[in-house]
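Structure first, sequence second, as always.
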């Protein structure tokens, strides 16, 4: 998501019921297809994690958060502190830890050439060193997420080669410290303007530096309010990225997904929750992890339920 959420997070770091039938899914079918992929929610803020797990009725098997993008120093401070207190200590019980990590900061906006030449190597090395110190070398680093948008310091803005060269340099430096470090290359949903094939063809930095293909996938532009919209917009793009990941021998992550309350959004939309759950179940063996974006009240959260009550009931009973 956008900078406001990233900074906010850095500062703070399923039982089947009769509702399933109202969504057109039999209880028996739901019980047979429970969430066997890694699943979680973002913005759990420390002690909120057990509360959210208890509310959902199933434990989280994925944890996802964001490092700040304003300065290199603040980003490294996050890895030096929050990874240990908010994430690393909670990785037990098979949970996967994913950290959205800036490729550049506001101090170095658009400086792909300098990055590729090694100007920021000490920062990338510092990230990996702190993962070692915190015992979190098994984390997935979601590096330079949503670069196909235009709202981050590392946004591609047409410079595909510059982005790829910087991305590759950062990964190589981090892996010089943690050789097996898992890297996620993640893009924002673009079905609404049909660019996703171009992004895959031009912005993918290479199989050798990517372990996981990732998406941010919100209910907006257009909103998934009917089967017709889902089948014409959402499903083709989701299927495209699932097939792209399979073709590269990678897993697929949906680190951010949630309701759309901004322009073009579906608001309190249980249909979208149902369809996303169906996609995860149909592709369970492919899914590295998924995390619902339970942030920025009252816009996205399904917990507390008062914000989006219909979608909250759907989420609680499907996950």
């Amino acid at each position: 998501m956008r900078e406001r959420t990233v900074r906010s997070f850095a500062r703070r770091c399923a039982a089947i019921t009769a509702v399933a039938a109202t969504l057109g899914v039999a209880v028996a079918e739901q019980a047979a297809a429970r969430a066997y992929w890694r699943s979680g929610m973002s913005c759990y803020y420390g002690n909120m994690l057990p509360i959210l797990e208890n509310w959902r009725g199933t434990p989280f098997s994925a944890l996802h958060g964001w490092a700040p993008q304003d300065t290199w120093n603040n980003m490294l401070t996050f890895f030096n502190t929050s990874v240990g207190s908010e994430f690393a200590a909670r990785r037990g019980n098979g949970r996967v830890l994913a950290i959205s990590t800036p490729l550049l900061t506001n101090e170095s906006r658009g400086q792909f050439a300098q990055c590729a030449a090694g100007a920021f190597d000490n920062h990338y090395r510092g990230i990996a060193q702190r993962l070692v110190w915190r015992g979190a070398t098994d984390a997935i680093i979601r590096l330079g997420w949503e670069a196909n948008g235009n709202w981050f310091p590392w946004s591609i803005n047409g410079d595909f080669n510059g982005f790829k060269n910087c991305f590759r340099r950062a990964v190589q430096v981090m892996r010089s410290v943690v050789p097996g470090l898992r890297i996620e290359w993640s893009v924002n949903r673009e079905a609404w303007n049909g660019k996703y094939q171009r992004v895959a063809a031009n912005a993918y930095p290479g199989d050798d530096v990517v372990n996981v293909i990732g998406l941010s996938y919100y209910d907006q532009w257009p909103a998934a309010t009917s089967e017709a919209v889902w089948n014409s917009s959402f499903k083709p793009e989701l299927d495209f990225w699932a097939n792209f990941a399979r073709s590269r021998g990678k897993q697929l992550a949906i680190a951010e997904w949630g309701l759309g309350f901004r322009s073009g959004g579906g608001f309190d939309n249980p249909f979208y929750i149902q369809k996303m759950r169906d996609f995860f179940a149909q592709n369970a063996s492919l899914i590295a992890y998924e995390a619902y974006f339970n942030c920025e009240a009252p816009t996205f959260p399904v917990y507390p339920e008062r914000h989006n009550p219909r979608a909250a009931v759907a989420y609680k009973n499907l996950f």
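Margin note: The beta strands are 39-41, 62-66, 96-101, 140-143, 182-188, 212-218, 251-258, 287-292.
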